[in-house]
Design a protein that fits this description.
With 383 residues, the protein is of the alpha/beta class. It is built from 13 helices and 16 strands. The two termini are 23 Å apart.
Length: 383
């Protein structure tokens, strides 16, 4: 009998949503609610893979302030194009390919970031975070490579259904000791439908059936299957929207002249060029009643304080359920969003396992260490 580990990391599968899904917990004797980190998957996934907070591994949000040469260097000339051309899908495709040719191997999307402003920013994720050497410092993938453990992984490149079919096939026919699959399809469905959407429920039912088949395949082969269901964060249903850009447009200060701003779907981030603009902007956003300014102490407690202000000198975080519309991430409403206060119940991630989970595993920071100890047990390594 061979022992084999299978980890399915489902983006945006929150503890609350999973817990009320019929039958999903079957076969997972050990279920743990995980505290996520402030921000989005761009910070949460590196935290899972390294066991370090965003301030330590350097990945917090998709876009950060430009320092020196970036994949967007030279894009400032785009301001000479007509506004319609700047918004065209053809230009977006050309710019995306240009960024890829400049060596970016990680996940990125230009979304609706004003094209001339791209030159002011940089991409935090330039390398493949799902591969050895893809993250600053040591990661789970480096451990697998260093120990020469036979493994196979799938991520956002390609179709989920193909990846899950390949995983099932390798469990039946292959010899890999560690199989890992990351999927973001549920995240997309939640954005479009909300937590109670029919597509969301159907996808969760498919995961339940997948787990049943994986257990059956391993049993038929005579293998001992160690199965883990993991997520990076949950999702909050949207209850209202707020026009932050419209609020700022009523002020005498203008971006990017008086300050540089980046408008994520749940955060507004600022770098100041005129100190009086800071006072005016902070007061105006407070008056909306839609969120709060994150003080340095709160950022430090959440492991997201960057002394170089790479992700903003000041950050305004919207209340759970409030969506910024429009934002640099999009101008159309969605049914659910993440990137809110990690303390909100619907933001909690999860770790479900067929194996015991130590009490010390309470958040994303402890997942890498847990999986590494499971690898030790799998291979019969003793401390």
């Amino acid at each position: 009998m061979s022992r084999r580990m299978v980890v399915l990391l489902v983006d945006a599968l929150g503890w609350e949503l999973a817990g009320r899904t019929p039958g999903l917990a079957d076969g997972f004797a050990y279920r743990r609610r995980l505290e996520t980190v402030l921000g989005f998957s761009s910070g949460a996934l590196p935290t899972i893979f390294t066991g370090r907070p965003p301030a330590a591994h350097g990945r917090f949000l998709m876009y950060r302030r430009a320092r020196g040469d970036t994949p967007f260097s030279g894009f400032e000339w785009l301001r000479l194009l007509p506004a319609r051309a700047q918004r065209s899908w053809r230009l977006t495709r050309l710019l995306t390919r240009a960024v890829e040719r400049r060596g970016v191997r990680g996940y990125f999307n230009l979304y609706e970031v004003p094209r001339p402003l791209l030159a002011e920013f940089d991409l935090a994720e330039r390398d493949d975070i799902f591969a050895p050497g893809g993250l600053p410092g040591d990661s789970l993938w480096d451990v697998l490579a260093r120990r020469s453990i036979p493994w196979r992984g799938w991520n956002w490149r390609g179709r989920e259904e193909d990846h899950l079919a390949a995983l099932e096939d390798l469990l039946e026919r292959g010899d890999e000791r560690f199989l890992f699959c990351y999927t973001a399809d549920l995240d997309d469905l939640l954005h479009r439908e909300g937590s109670e959407g029919p597509g969301v429920q159907a996808r969760l039912a498919r995961y339940r059936e997948l787990f049943q088949r994986l257990r059956a395949v391993a049993a038929a082969r005579g293998d001992e299957l160690w199965l883990y269901l993991l997520s990076d964060h949950g999702m909050v249903d949207v209850t209202r929207t707020v026009d932050m850009m419209g609020t700022l447009a009523t002020l005498p200060w203008r971006w990017p002249r008086d300050y540089l701003a980046f408008f994520d779907s749940t955060m507004a981030r600022f770098w100041w060029r005129e100190r009086h603009a800071r006072e005016s902007v902070r007061a105006a956003l407070c008056a909306t009643g839609a969120g709060r300014w994150l003080e340095p102490s709160a950022l430090e407690a959440g492991g997201a304080l960057f002394p170089d202000h790479a992700y903003g000198e000041d950050i305004f975080l919207l209340d759970p359920g409030v969506l910024m519309l429009p934002s640099f991430m999009g101008s159309r409403p969605v049914r659910a969003m993440h990137g809110f206060d990690p303390a909100h119940p619907d933001m909690a991630a999860l770790l479900w396992s067929s194996r015991p989970v130590p009490d010390r595993v309470r958040g994303l920071l402890e997942v890498r260490g847990y999986l590494e100890s499971e690898l030790d047990a799998l291979l019969g390594v003793t401390a």
